[in-house]
């Protein structure tokens, strides 16, 4: 039964996104305000060009502590290769990704378009719902 449950069934949308030229302090504020651990970085055409996570943002705190540098742009701190998952992927496939990596959320794609995100908590909700 779990094989028939898809990412689409448990993903969340709308989605917080960042642009590469956004001020990183603004991005940190949005992460905190929306209680999320990361978000995709998209270019002007809507293509994913990276992913900014809480872990990436910790560099700002370290730079501020050592060099009194409190800023920067999202594009300077983001992880350039964003792992994504298709909306019709099995929830089990996503569970394996989360178990085998330190990733906490993934952008969800449908026909090369960003349509949402799926988190570890979403996967756990799916497992709880089908028991």
TrEMBL record:
<keyword id="KW-0129">CBS domain</keyword>
<dbReference type="InterPro" id="IPR044729">
    <property type="entry name" value="CBS_bac"/>
</dbReference>
<dbReference type="InterPro" id="IPR051257">
    <property type="entry name" value="Diverse_CBS-Domain"/>
</dbReference>
<dbReference type="InterPro" id="IPR000644">
    <property type="entry name" value="CBS_dom"/>
</dbReference>
<feature type="domain" description="CBS">
    <location>
        <begin position="78"/>
        <end position="131"/>
    </location>
</feature>
<dbReference type="Pfam" id="PF00571">
    <property type="entry name" value="CBS"/>
</dbReference>
<feature type="domain" description="CBS">
    <location>
        <begin position="11"/>
        <end position="69"/>
    </location>
</feature>
<dbReference type="InterPro" id="IPR046342">
    <property type="entry name" value="CBS_dom_sf"/>
</dbReference>
<protein>
    <submittedName>
        <fullName>CBS domain-containing protein</fullName>
    </submittedName>
</protein>
């Amino acid at each position: 039964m779990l094989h028939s449950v898809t990412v689409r069934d448990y993903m969340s949308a709308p989605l917080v996104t960042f642009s590469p030229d956004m001020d990183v302090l603004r991005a940190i504020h949005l992460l905190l305000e929306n209680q999320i651990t990361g978000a995709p970085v998209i270019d002007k055409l809507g293509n994913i060009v990276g992913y900014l996570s809480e872990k990436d943002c910790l560099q700002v705190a370290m730079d501020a502590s050592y060099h009194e540098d409190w800023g920067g742009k999202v594009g300077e701190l983001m992880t350039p290769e964003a792992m994504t998952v298709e909306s019709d992927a099995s929830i089990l496939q996503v569970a394996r990704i989360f178990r085998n990596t330190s990733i906490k959320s993934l952008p969800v794609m449908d026909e090369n378009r960003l349509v949402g995100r799926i988190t570890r908590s979403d996967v756990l909700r799916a497992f709880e719902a089908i028991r």
